[in-house]
Specification:
Rossmann fold; alpha/beta; about 270 residues; 2 domains; Chemotaxis Receptor Methyltransferase Cher, domain 1
Length: about 270
C-alpha cells in the first residue's frame, strides 16, 4: 500500500512535536530514504504501517526515532574557522579575564551532534589557554539524538572525520589511534560532558553558561519555538556572556540581544531586561 499525503502530513507533525523542526511538504520524499533503515529494523516495512502504528499506539519511543532520523546531523571539527578564530582571539580571552577570581568557565554546545564541536572547544582551551589547566572548565554538549550522544561520549571517530577541519598538529596532540578509529585523549574528554536534551520541550539546563554555541540549529524552527528557546538562552547567560549562532542566523530579539561585529564574524551579548 503506497504512502499518501495524510501519512506524510502526520509524520511532519510528529517531527515538529518531537524536535521543533518544520519540514516542507516538497521534501516528503526524504521520509522514504531516511526512515528506510528504521522501517526494516522495526518490521513495519512501509510508511503507511508506521503511521498506523503511531496513531494506534501513540508510541513515544517510535515518535522519537522518527524525529531523530529526520534531523540533519551535519558537523565537523572546528566547523566554520571564522567562529573559532573569534573564540580564540576575542571571546575566550575576555571571559578568562573576567573570571580570574573564580577560576571557573562553563560553555554549552547545543545540538552538538556527535560531539566534534564540544571537543573542538576543549582543544582550543587547552592549546591556547594553558593557564586554565588549573581552572574548573566544563563543556556541555547536548543533542536530541540518543545515538549522537552515544557517539560523542565514546570520543571515537573514523579517520575521514579527522580530515574535515582538524588541524594536523591537533590530531597529533589530542587524538590517538585506536584500531580503525581515532580517539580523543583523556585530558580533552574529561573537560566535556554529553547529555540528551530536547531544545524545544523545556528540558534545558538550569545552570548558567558563560558562552553558548547554538549554531545552525534553529533554521527550521517555527517562530514561536525560536523565541521561547532564545528567551531561555538569555536567562542562562551572564551579562558578559556570549551567544554564537550560525553565519546565516539572527536571534531577532533586539530587546534581549545586542549584535557585536568583529571582522567577518558576529556574536551576541545579552541585554538587561527591565
Amino acid at each position: 500500500m503506497s504512502s499518501s499525503e495524510p501519512d506524510f502530513a502526520y509524520l511532519r507533525a510528529v517531527v515538529l512535536e518531537e524536535s521543533g523542526n518544520v519540514l516542507d511538504p516538497s521534501r516528503d520524499y526524504l521520509f522514504e530514504a531516511r526512515l528506510k533503515s528504521m522501517l526494516h529494523t522495526t518490521g513495519l516495512m512501509t510508511i503507511r504501517r508506521l503511521v498506523s502504528t503511531l496513531r494506534d499506539q501513540n508510541a513515544a519511543a517510535l515518535k522519537r526515532s522518527v524525529a531523530e532520523a529526520m534531523t540533519v546531523n551535519e558537523t565537523s571539527f572546528f566547523r566554520d574557522a571564522i567562529a573559532f578564530e573569534l573564540l580564540e582571539h576575542e571571546l575566550l580571552p575576555a571571559l578568562t579575564r573576567g573570571r580570574h577570581s573564580v577560576r571557573r568557565l562553563r560553555l554549552w554546545s547545543a545540538a552538538c551532534s556527535s560531539g566534534q564541536e564540544a571537543y573542538s572547544l576543549a582543544m582550543l582551551v587547552r592549546e591556547y589557554f594553558s593557564r586554565l589547566s588549573s581552572w574548573d572548565v566544563e563543556i556541555l554538549g547536548t543533542d536530541l539524538s540518543r545515538e549522537m550522544i552515544r557517539r560523542a561520549c565514546s570520543g571515537r571517530y573514523p579517520k575521514s572525520e579527522l580530515r574535515r577541519g582538524l588541524p594536523a598538529h591537533f590530531r597529533t596532540k589530542y587524538m590517538r589511534s585506536c584500531g580503525d578509529e581515532w580517539e580523543v585523549v583523556p585530558e580533552i574528554r574529561k573537560m566535556c560532558h554529553f547529555h540528551e536534551r530536547n531544545l524545544c520541550n523545556g528540558t534545558l539546563p538550569l545552570e548558567r553558561y558563560d558562552g553558548i554555541l547554538l549554531r545552525n540549529v534553529m533554521l527550521y524552527f517555527p517562530e514561536e519555538v525560536r523565541r521561547r528557546l532564545l528567551l531561555e538562552v538569555h536567562r542562562m547567560l551572564p551579562a558578559d556572556g556570549f551567544l554564537l549562532l550560525g553565519a546565516s542566523e539572527q536571534p531577532g530579539l533586539p530587546e534581549h540581544f545586542r549584535a557585536e561585529l568583529n571582522a567577518n564574524a558576529c556574536y551576541y551579548r545579552p541585554l538587561p531586561v527591565t
